Every structure is written in structure tokens, then in C-alpha cells.
Amino acid sequence: MTIIIGLGNPGKQYENTRHSFGFRVLDFLVGRRSLGEGGWDEKYSSKFIKLEDVILAKPQTFMNKSGEAVKEILKYYDNAQLIVIHDELDLPLGSIRVQKDISAAGHNGVQSIIDELGTKDFIRIRLGIDNPQTRGQIPGDDFVLQKFTEQEEQIVNEVLEITKTAIETLQTEGFDMAQSKFNG
After folding, report:
1. CA distance 146 to 20
2. Alpha carbons 148 and 170: distance in angstroms, whole number
3. Residue 52: what pLDDT?
């Protein structure tokens, strides 16, 4: 069993913001039916879809409390492989990193998961969101809550496709292969 957590903030006002990039990936996967059909259930403090061997979950606890929802899910699926997909301000827009067992590096949602689980030993797919041209002097906390520009959306769509392929690689070829293919 694989549990894929997409991080973001619930609510219409946060849709398509940089900080909800993880939610967008899961919506893309379901919309493209690459992982199966079905609608989102409300379960485990998350929007939740259980397929044959994959669970998709979007915590509804807000970013800073994401770990509470993840911990709740893992009570029932404790032997599952955990993959967390999230935005990363420290990476340029368009970049992706597949990593494991690393610190939160200032990401509050990831830190919440580490704190609740008592470990950082899980796979993360970090999606770059920084763009000096649109960010300017905006503080990081404000920048992550902005929506992508029309020009940036083209890059976001490419990242969605790449992330889908990275997830498939993790499932079929394993972590080491996914890391070597996508950390370029």
C-alpha cells in the first residue's frame, strides 16, 4: 500500500495557490484518471480516495497541522509507504526533487508531519515554487499564498506531468531510480 499525501490549505481562497501545489497534483492524478476513478471522501481529517493499492489524501487541517491528519491515516495503514508532495520555496519554479529522510527545511506542513510521526523517514516530492520575477520583495509567508501567474501556469502544467511520472517511477522502479531520474 502507498499513501500519497498532497499538502495544501483547504478552502476556495487557497485553491491554486503555490502553497497548495500538493493538492493540485492529487487533483491532476484523479482528473487524469491515472490512478483510478472515484470521488473524494471525507475521512481521517482529509479528503481521501482509496484505490486498490494507493491512497490519495489531502489533509483538511490546514498546512501547519498536516501531521495530525497523516498520523490519523497511518493508524489504519501503518505498513504503508508514505509519499508527501509539497511546495518548496527554496527551489525554483519548475524544479522537482525526490528525497527521503531529510529535514523540513522550514516547511511547516512537513515539520508537522515529522513532529507527529516522530520521524523524517518518508519520501518527499518537493515542487519548486520560487520565481524571483514574480516574487520581488514579497515575504515568503505571503508569496506562498499567491496564485500562479498565467505564464507560470504553463510551467505548473509541465510539473504536474513530471510529478505523475515520478510517482509512477517510485511505484514501479523504486526510490533510487526515481531519485536519479528526477533530481536533475
Report:
1. 10
2. 27
3. 83
Q: CATH class for domain 2-182?
A: alpha beta
Q: What is the torsional sign of CA 85, 86, 90, 96? A: positive
Q: Is 104:114 a contact under the CB 8 Å cutoff?
A: yes
Q: Confirm or deny that 108 is annotated as ligand binding.
A: yes
Whether 138 has a pLDDT exceeding 60, the answer reads: yes
Residue with cell 510551467: 155
Catalytic residues: 19
Strands 46-50 and 41-43, sheet pairing: antiparallel
Q: Which amino acid is at 157?
A: N
pLDDT digits (tens, 9 = 90+) for 38-64: 578 999 999 999 988 899 999 999 999
Q: Is 64 marked as a binding-site residue?
A: yes
Least confident span in 72-86, 126-140, 168-182: 126-140
Looking at the chain, list the stretches that DSSP marks H as alpha helix, in order from N- to C-terminal side: 21-31, 66-76, 108-117, 132-135, 140-143, 150-173, 175-182
